[in-house]
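User: Here's a structure from my thesis project, written as structure tokens. My advisor, Dr. K., wants to see whether a designed sequence matches the one we expressed. Can you design one independently, without my sequence as a hint?
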């Protein structure tokens, strides 16, 4: 595996809750942070940001006052997952 990809993944995983601490991949870590928020919301079957884990202020501002956007994103992610569930399950075997 390309060492840049390895470093990117390592840094994003390590700093996805504190992307400002990332040295090289701050934007990528913030993206993983945002994806994690939506993953948790879907897991707990909510589309309310107040139910999400602590989030970066930048992300909160992005979705503030637009519950419809959050609901739409959660809905699209769920649909994509359901559309591809068999592929995911087959890959785990």
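Assistant: Designed independently from the structure alone:
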């Amino acid at each position: 595996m390309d060492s840049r990809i390895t470093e990117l993944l390592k840094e994003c995983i390590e700093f996805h809750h504190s992307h400002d601490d990332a040295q090289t991949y701050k934007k990528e870590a913030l993206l993983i942070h945002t994806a994690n928020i939506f993953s948790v919301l879907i897991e707990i079957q909510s589309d309310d940001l107040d139910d999400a884990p602590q989030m970066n202020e930048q992300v909160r501002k992005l979705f503030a006052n637009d519950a419809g956007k959050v609901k739409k994103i959660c809905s699209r992610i769920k649909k994509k997952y359901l559309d591809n569930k068999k592929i995911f399950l087959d890959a785990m075997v």
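When you compare it with your expressed construct, this may help: The chain has one domain: 3-92.
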